[in-house]
Amino acid sequence: MASSASPLDIAYAWEALGGDPALLARVSSVVREGALRARLPVRELAHACVGACALAAAELAAVRRGGAVPGVTVDDGAVAAAFTSERHLLVDGRAPVSFAPLSRFWRTADGWVRTHANYPHHRERLLAALDLTDGEVATVAAALAERSATEVEEAVYGAGGLAVALRTPERWAGHPQGVAVARGPLVEGRRLDAARARALSAVDAGPLLPAAGVRVLDLTRVIAGPVATRTLALLGADVLRVDPPAPPELADQHADTGFGKRSAVLDLVADRGVFEELLSSADVVVTAYRPGALDRFGLSPEALAERRPGLVVAQLSAWGGDGPWGARRGFDSLVQAATGIATTEGTPSRPGALPAQALDHGTGYLLAAAVLRALTEQSRVGGTRVVRLALARTAAWLTGGGPGAVPDAAPPAADPWLGEADSALGRLRYALPPVVFGGGPDDWARPPGVWGADDARWAGG
Q1: Is-catalytic flag, 360?
Q2: pLDDT tens-digit profile of 383-397?
Q3: Active site residue: 193, 267, 360, 443, which one?
């Protein structure tokens, strides 16, 4: 169980993943104190998450090619660029808009509330909860100013939207969901059955791709889950992202996180036969919907294991699977508001934010690391594996030691860690991958394509 002051370093993350501590000697670091400057130790969190992921990749590479585990390098400059990848993205020179007008902090009668309305259906539900048809910022602000923050929180969630009252760290620690989160580990993993160990073939000469040949069904959206599967794609996995026909993913979000993958659209009812065919030869299933949302489609870990023994099932949620908020939707910005991060990073007159959506990105790299470690363990002793992570648990790790002084050093320029590529979406500028180990890839094999435009089949199938 994570303590209130668990160290923010690669060693702690590696221990949470069940890794061999002797392998930590393979990691070297390039520290840049100005990276991801904040009161909370965001640089250290990001460094640890990426470092643990790179070490998990190097470990699996050694299993598949033989020999010593390659050396890992974690450069804070590369990590900072990757953790702000959505801000560095350009599509034909155009910068995307990260947040819609109604995704923001609002004053309420007794404090502040944070809403998330980037997706049209969440915007509609927010307005419905407030009994508004006019979505102008001034109109929404006036309606919210008349209500308490917790009243808005419950009303909007009741309508299927997203809103969270701003809390201090102390208030969150006493909240039933904060208590539930504090009881859980940073990385939850278990073995469901004794399925036979699945042999992983040796990887070919050339770039060392530890996940080569691994088939990943990507049932994720937004940032954290797609960052995890984007990382698996970098490492050679055949990643097929599968989305429902509606609502579509935000185009710029897909452009940022779609590197290395293919993207298909399936209705899990009407196209059930196609999905089951994909599942029958999948090695990994990654989900990032609220807990229980996919169970009705037979996608609980237990149901998946029954149909595909030896699978690795990776699950991501906002709040963790336990507690009164366990089944609620959530986003990085909302978790920051609820857990006291926005209070810590703000001023007496206004809430603040981390210098990156670090809960999303950090949890995404940890999720990829957990999948890689599960594949390594599975190659040795078998078993269907389940790994679970939550943004709120990553937040608990970040906040455990409390805030400190903001570093004086200037942030490193991102230019050395940016790349460019032509794609079906246009000319892209993007952040290069920060997961670096000896002999490993330094970029994705393919740029993102058009969302939902690929066939629902495995590569070469």
Answers
A1: yes
A2: 899 999 999 999 999
A3: 360
Has this prediction a pTM greater than 0.85? yes
Is pLDDT at 4 greater than 70 in this prediction? no
- 59: enclosing H helix or E strand: helix 42-65
pLDDT of amino acid 206: 66
Q: Which residues contact 149 (CB under 8 A, 6 or more apart)?
A: 108, 110, 111, 112, 113, 165, 166
Q: Which residues contact 51 (CB under 8 A, 6 or more apart)?
A: 10, 13, 27, 29, 72, 74
What is the spatial distance between Cα 49 and Cα 46, in angstroms, rounded to a whole number? 5
CA distance 77 to 117: 31
How far from chain centre, in Å, is Cα 354?
16
pLDDT in tens, 86-128: 999 999 999 998 889 999 999 999 999 999 998 899 999 999 9
**Structural Rg of the chain based on CA atoms:** 21
Compute the Cα dihedral for 371, 377, 382, 383 and give only its sign. negative
What is the maximum span of the chain, computed from C-alpha positions, in angstroms? 66
